[in-house]
Amino acid sequence: MAVDLSARVGSLRLASPVMTASGTSGHGAELAPFFDLRRLGAVVVKSLAVDPWPGNPPPRVRPVAGGMLNGVGLQGPGVAAWLEHDAPRLEATGAVVVASIWGRTVEDFARAAALLAAAPACVVAVEVNVSCPNVEDRSKMFAHSPSATAEAVDAAAACRRPRWAKLSPNVADITEIAGAALGAGAEALTLVNTLSGMAIDLEGRRPALGAGGGLSGAALHPVAVRAVHDCRRAFPDAPIVGVGGVSRGADAVELLLAGADAVQVGTATFADPRAPLRILDELERWCVRHGVGAARELVAAAHGRGARAGGEPAPVADPPAPTTGRAR
Questions:
Q1: Rounded to whole angstroms, how far apart are CA atoms 204 and 201?
Q2: pLDDT digit string (tens) for 209-253?
């Protein structure tokens, strides 16, 4: 039985519903020696600021039950350096690419997005990581405020590509934030970023990481499933990318059933660089065992209505040319 693994996320038609997650596979082609990146729906690169950023002081990573804590702090070379050094290597692999940006001010998002307007055609979308501190609002996270989220997403229109808003689970009502992001022009929602957490060094009697940590891995998965389910119920036609604790094909299936159009694989890649492809293969085998002819048939099935509106066949095409957005 052949399974159609193509996926649609808004205006984009992708080869499969499995991608990498930002921050877990470097700035470009690091996974290329392990498998053909063209088999993935997209490679999502590490979040980039408009300028180089050193990140947080060490230690930065700590294994915990059910996952890991990371306090890397969005270290990166900046958009211009990525475009010059990393993007060409990634483009050479033939991968479809989603860039990711972050900022400490709304203007930071606008400047980073404007630089990405000149990115190669393989960059088909920009993920706007609003789960970062907003210095214009006393360092509160953008994603904790509907208005701040909307401002950042709107500013990122300068990228002239579809924008995906990556939201935080550390809020009382994620649908309120999601609605603000969609209202500001986000074409899709990426749900979710890490969950705030902490570990204590028992011998040193102090926090184990040099800065606050974000919990990822298996422990985050039920949180992501709930966020996807709630946002699909609130926004039946909004494109959604589910991320959080996807380490098996069954995890990907669960997020699709909850309402995700595609999924991202993150923490699992640290232990197994081939995890995204393995999970895609496991998803395909699950579909074969259950008589599912197309992975998109699973989307939102847990809501009792099968594939959602817009789940029509999505033929795979070459990466689309950048769409026209509002310059800022």
A1: 5
A2: 977 789 999 999 999 999 999 999 999 999 999 999 999 999 999
